Amino acid sequence: MxxxxxxxxxxxxxxxxxxxxxxxxxxxxRLPPGPLGIPMIGQSFGLLRAMRANTAEKWIEDRVKKxxxxxxxxLFGTPTVIIHGQAANKFAFTSDTLSNQQPQSIQxxxxxxxxxxxxxxxxxRVRDAIVAFLKPEVLKQYIRMMDGEMTxxxxxYWEGKQNLTVLPVMKTLTFNIICSLLFGLEPGARREKFLExxxxxxxxxxxxxxxxxxxxxNRSIRASSTxxxxxxxxxxxxxxxxxxxxxxxxxxxxxxxxxxHGEAKEEMLSENEIVDNVMLVMTAGYDTSSVLITFMVRxxxxxxxxxxxxxxxxxxxxxxxxxxxxxxxxxxxxxxxxWRVALEIxxxxxxxxxxxxxxxxxxxxxxxxxxxxxxxxxxxxxxxMNESIFPDPSKFDPKRFENQSAIPxxxxxxxxxxxxxxxxxxxxxIEILVAMHxxxxxxxxxxxxxxxxxxxxxMPVPTEGLPIQIKAKKIL
Length: 476
Hints:
By secondary structure, the protein is α+β, with helices and mostly antiparallel strands.
C-alpha cells in the first residue's frame, strides 16, 4: 500500500520536475527574486498555515520586506509571482495578457468553463449570461422571496432559542437562499445531500493538487462529482419544464441560462458551462455572504456606537411598515449606513483574501519577466490596509465609504475591479441588508465565546463559529 502511494506521488511530481528544469534554463536574471522551493509544493503549506493562524497579511508583508514588491514562489502546484499595490491590482483586473485561470485545485472542483477560468470573448459571453439574471432590475422581483427565506430562517433557528453559533446558521441561511432563488431546489432529502456534498467540496478549494486517497483534496473531488451529477439532473428537469411551458425563463438561474438565445448559436451556453457556473455562483454566494453577515453580528456585539447607528437606521424603516409587510427596493436604498458598515468590514477582513491569474505569454511587470503559464497572485489587504490610501487603516470607520468615488480606483477590491468586478454584487448586497434588518430589529445578542479571534480556511472563520447568547425583542 505505502509503495503504491509512493509510486503514485512520484508519477504526479515527475512532470513538475521537468517544468522546473525548463524554468531554470530561462534567463533567470530577469525573473523576480525569491526561491521557487520544492516542486509542486513550494510555499503552499506556509501560506495555508499563515491563513489558518490569521497571519497571512504579515506573511506577505515579510516577503515584500525580504524580496521586494514583486517576488516568485510556488503555490498550489504552479510557479507563481506575488504582486501588490494599486498598479498591481489594475494589472490583475484589466491586463489582456492575463487569463483568469485559477489554481488547479479550484479548476478541478469548479470546472474549466466557469467565469473565473475564462478570458476574452468567452468571459464576456458567460458573464453577460449571468449578469442578465443578477442585475438589479431582475433581482427586485426576488426581494420578497428573500424576505420570506429570512423569516423562515428566524423562526427555525433564532426564535425561542437562548444560544446559537452564528456562522453555521448563516451558512444554512445563504445555502437555502441560493437553493430557492438560483436553483429552485426545494427543501428535502435532495437539498440535504446537496449541502453535505457542497461542504466537503469547498474544504479542498485551496489545496496542493495531489489526488491521493484519504486526503481532503480527494474527498473534495468526489464531492464535486456528486454535485455535478445533481446539477445536471436539475438542468434536465428545467429543460423539460421549459419545453412543456411549465417554467418561465426568469424562474431561477438555471432556467435563465437555458433560455438564452443569441443571434449565433455560439452565444448560447453549453451544458458544461451551465454546470460550471452554477457551481461557481453557489460557492461565491454561500461562503462570502455568510461570512460577512457573521462578521457584522460580531461587530454589533463589540461596537456599541456602530450598533446604535445601524439599529436607528433599521428601526426607522421598520416603523414605516405595517405588520406583515415585506422589505422593498426602496427600503434597501435607505440602508446606507448599514451598507457602509458592511463595506468597512470587507476592507479590514475581506472574505476573499486574494486571487490568481495566469500569464498567456511572457510578460513584464515591475521590471521583471513573468514567464508564460505562471500564476500571478494578488492580495486584497495590500491596498485595503495601506495608510496612504486609507488613513489609520486599522481603525474601523464606515465614513470612509460615504463618498466611494473619492477612493482611488483599484484600491478597494473586495468585489474585484474593472471587467472582473463580481457580477453577484447586488445579490449579495440585498442578502446582507435583508438579513441585518431582521436581526437587529428582532433580537439582541452578546458574544459568549472564549475569544474574539478568527482564522482563514480559506475564508475567515471566527473562533468556535461565533457562539452568541440571544434575546428576542418585543415586536410592537
